[in-house]
Amino acid sequence: MSRGEDAVVSRRTVELFVSGLLSIVGIGLAISNWKLGASWAADGPQPGYFPFLLSTMLALASLYGVFDALRGRHGARGDAAFVKRDEFVRVLQVLVPTILFCLATEFLGIYVAGFLLIAGFMRYIGESRWISCVAVALVLMASLFWCFEIEFQVPMPKGPIEDRLGY
Amino acid sequence: MDGTAIDSLLHGFVVLLTFKNMLLMMVGIILGIFVGVLPGLGGPNGVALLLPLTFTMDPTGAIVLLSCIYWGALFGGAITSILFNIPGEAWSVATTFDGYPMAQQGRAGEALTAAFTASFFGALAAVLLITFLAPLVARFALRFGPPEFFAVYFLTFCSFVGMGKEARHKILISMLIGFLLAAVGMDTVGGSLRMTFGFSDLLRGFDFLVAVIGLFGLSEILLTMEEKLAFEGKQAKLDLKVVWRTWKSLPRYWATLIRSAIAGCWLGITPGGAIAASFMGYGLAKRFSRDPDSFGTGRIEGVLAPETAAHAAGTSALLPMLALGIPGSGTAAVLLGGLMIWGLQPGPLLFVEHADFVWGLIASMYLGNIAGLILVLATVPLFAAILRVPFPTIASSVIVLCAIGAYAVHGAVFDIWLMVLFGVVGYVFKKLNYPLAPLALALVLGDRAEDAFRQTMIASRGNLTVFWSNSLVGSITSLALLLLLWPVLSDIMKRLRKSGDGVPTGAASG
Amino acid sequence: MNARFVAALFGAACFASLPALAAWEPTKPVEFVVPAGAGGASDQMARTIQGIVQKYNLMKQPFIIALKGGASGAEGLMAMKQAAGDPHKIIVAQSSLYTIPFATNLPFSWKDLTPVTLMAMDEFVLWDNAELPYRTTAEFLAAAKKVSATEPMKMGGTGSKREDHILTAFIESKAGVKFAYIPYKSGGEAATQLVGKHTDANVNNPSENIAQWRANQVRALCVFDKERLPYKAKVTETQSWADIPTCKETGLDIDYLMLRGIFIPGGGTAEQVEFYDQLMRKVAATAEWKDYMEKNALKEAPFGPAALKAFLEKDEPLHKQLMTEAKFLAAP
């Protein structure tokens, strides 16, 4: 068994984490909606009535989820890997660039950030030649720019470069 | 009455059949397909964006252009759903359930053909309804008050939820999350803000499209990457013959098509909307299928049903707009604004005062959908060929498109982050076998159902029997409850039959 | 000599205003924020302005309409607040400028924006279903009074704790009646629900009920203004807008109007305000705008930032008072 087959985290742990998180969210929302008014007034339910009911149910169902995961009835399936090391690495290979892309969008605008994402992704994951990475990314983002900014006039987040060009 | 409708329709064709109008029609459909394919840039946006261009045109030409954008968007929404699991339009979420698995199996051409043909069938059913029954249907739509609306939403919900292979508490949790997300923001009935915690980015609530682009689209890229799969389908034959082969198999599914067309027309008029219709169509097809468990693995009915219903609803939603002046959908609302700017007053008198315009529009519905079908079918090989592009190129472009889509909905960078968050949630949920469809449905119907319920309660002063107060609302509510309890009922019946045969029933427990 | 002095002053003023006019104009597309849903009254107004500006080429840069109707329009208001200092955004606002902050504690005040000008005033009309037997306001209110305690009449309107709801509460306190107010998502929905007899009456703006009025499905009882509407062309077979009596004439002493005004984000300079004010005046001078005003039975309003500010300073306290009386204020 190679190291890539090792589990990063077991399925049971993730189940516990998700259920636990959801039950905390459920309890928090229930309190917030209770404060808003969650009773049945003369003219029907108050604003917080349904959300209160829903969040209470969410808390209860998630607590059942916690209990279900702890009980460990699922045996081998529960102890199985949620994600294996090499799988996890591959997921991060998409997720991390995506998050960087969003960050870049805040500062550089979506067009430049998108260009960097596509070109970089094609180069490092797809191992294409630099020239074709740049060409494909440039053509794609330029046509999106033409489509949204010029034809449809839907403004997208833009950065200093577009500002220089007068957009 | 039929005779006059046909006469008026023929007159409408005469009005329409000018070179200029036909040209506008083609331009509109191509633009519409474009708008439908780009996620986030939905039908209402597409129509709204071109509205100013039409101020100087004559009303008939203007409505032909704009309504054809709408038809194009209805067709185009299915394309990215099937190819990449990203709903191009909110109403094509249900199309991803089986359309995307089909594409993964190398049957993208078949799925696209089925989707387009089903869309056309749905639209045709709705246009026939508009042609012959407009006044009747308009009067029927007036009978819908808050209790009836609630009953319709309830029915949609019941026809979809109730079955699933996943653990019960996970179905419930997914649904509850959807309902809670729908409740964030301004509460129409109470006039107060709920669960915004002082963040102005939460004011507008969680948009359905932002959520589904992340939950379905981005999460799918994460999963594909994890499994080291490239998009399969490279070896599939991509020629126009696939259209013919798919068509030959379609008559077999006549019941699904008709059922979905009826559900779609109904929801378009009432107005539950195309999104609700697509879910209801899918839910009904699954419920009435002999093999419901195979849905979600690439069944052609799973593509036919939601597409027929969505297109039928999208088309028939124009009827209440024309005849009553109430928009049945977001796009209809924009068209309504357009009509007023062109100097037409939608409402009961429109059919009398501007017959040329109305029948020209109805004739354009026939021609526009035929032209649309031909155009999109011709492009099936082209779209299917996109799948041959190497995975890294596709994946990164799809991420950019997801971000553009999420941003375009409200023009907020916050929504891009939200979309990424939903992507991660979708990935974790899929791996833990939480179903995502109940979340999507609850998110789209939740607040509308709650509004209708609370409006009903104000009017009836808290009396719940109002849901059986007349034959219309009573029969919808009862039908909904029947559908909801159907799995339990059929289970009981099976057990009864089994115990009748002398087979012990205790074996199932434990 | 005195006259010459005045003339000189006038000349100087003209000179001064010329470079001022040229001093600022948009350098990129202007985002026109609509704090309401697609197809509604605000959206239509914005699109009409956009169409006129485009047709007569009144501005070099285009208008781009941005619908920000989330949370009853609070989304659009907050977007404008956050855009302080950006003169390439304008908003067409109405009384939700203060009703939403009062009802929800939203951290927003119209003082966060820079007022440009009023475009028009929107009227409210009391409508009932044409098949009901009440032909006048008095008959209607008498009938409403009778059932107030047992099964109150249903009044439809747009949203909760907003203009329609406030006006309904105003009627309730003036006439000593009680309604069951049912909030809908839009005025169009309120209109259809009235025709379908799911409600008994509504207080829609003229434009929201005109289609149903022309089809004789609803009846206009009175208009909530000091004087009648000026438009004398027949709208229905028998009536024009000017034929609707004022509510005061019919014994219900209420006048209530809603502004439709243009603002730019906070920190707008005098030159920027001047540019948009002049632009809107040019829009208002066109035949298309006059036609739009008549079709929607809108009331003319004085132009310029001073008039808008004066109106807001009067209208905001009025709403605070009405909403306090109706117990619509959010708990602090």
Automatic annotation (TrEMBL), chain A:
InterPro entries: DUF1468 (IPR009936). The keyword Transcription does not apply. Coiled coil: none annotated. Keywords: Membrane, Transmembrane, Transmembrane helix. The keyword Iron-sulfur does not apply. The chain crosses the membrane at residues 16-36, 48-67, 94-122, 128-148. It comes from the Bacteria. Residues 21-157 form the DUF1468 domain. This is DUF1468 domain-containing protein.
TrEMBL record, chain B:
Pfam families: TctA. The chain crosses the membrane at residues 21-42, 62-84, 111-138, 144-164, 171-193, 205-225, 321-345, 357-386, 398-429, 467-489. InterPro entries: DUF112_TM. Coiled coil: none annotated. It comes from the Bacteria. Keywords: Membrane, Transmembrane, Transmembrane helix. Residues 22-440 form the DUF112 domain. This is Tricarboxylate transporter. It comes from Roseiterribacter gracilis.
From TrEMBL, chain C:
This is Tricarboxylate transporter. The lineage of its organism: Bacteria, Pseudomonadati, Pseudomonadota, Alphaproteobacteria, Rhodospirillales. It comes from the Bacteria. The keyword Signal applies. InterPro entries: BUG, Bug_dom1. Residues 1-22 form the signal peptide. Belongs to the UPF0065 (bug) family. Pfam families: TctC (PF03401).
